[in-house]
Amino acid sequence: MAQLDYFIFAENVVVGRSIAENYEIKKPKKVFTIPNTPNTYSFFACISIFDFDFTEKHTVQVMLKSEAGQLIGEKKDFYIPIKANNVSSSLPDEFVAYVISVDYRNTYIENEGKYKCEVYFDNEFIGSKYLYFLKVRRD
């Protein structure tokens, strides 16, 4: 069954123009500071999923929720292509992963507090990660 390999929140992600170019995660963090609430904020969630059959089509859903469980923004849907071009047949299956970068652009943050990002693979929950929005007053 599919598993989360890593799950990183960051202020920005830079993806190269080709598979051979770098994938940079800029300013990774679990706590994001915002000047006031309610407010909008932009950030990324970088998710790596492994241990699944690349010869079949799969779907991944990513949802950001408030501490009360309310969905924040829209559910993000991704479709994993069959046998991606960058998968080497000589690489052992446990080292083959699919990386998703979720752009939460201008996401409405109502209150300071803990939020949770949940990941579903083919409609089955495979894990979650918490992040925190801290209201920091700047004078």
Shape: elongated
The first-to-last residue Cα distance is: 50 Å
* Rg over C-alpha atoms, rounded to the nearest angstrom: 16 Å
Low-pLDDT segments: none
Number of helices: 0
Q: How confident is the prediction overall: mean pLDDT? A: 85
Percent of residues in beta strands: over 45%
SSE order? EEEEEEEEE
Number of strands: 9
Helix content: under 10%
> Which quaternary structure do these chains form?
single chain
Spatial sequence of strands, sheet with the most strands: 3-9-8-5-6
> Which structural class do the helices and strands define?
mainly beta
Query: The biggest beta sheet, please?
Result: 5 strands, mixed
Name a few traits of the molecule.
single chain; 139 residues; mainly beta; five-stranded mixed β-sheet; 9 strands
Task: Report what the structure shows.
The protein is an all-beta fold. 0% of the residues lie in helices and 63% in strands. It is built from no helices and nine strands. It has strands at 3-15, 23-28, 31-34, 39-50, 58-66, 71-80, 97-109, 113-121, 124-135. Strands 3-9-8-5-6 form a five-stranded mixed β-sheet, with no helix packed on it. It has a four-stranded antiparallel β-sheet with strand order 2-1-4-7, with no helix packed on it. Strand 8 (113-121) and strand 9 form a beta hairpin.
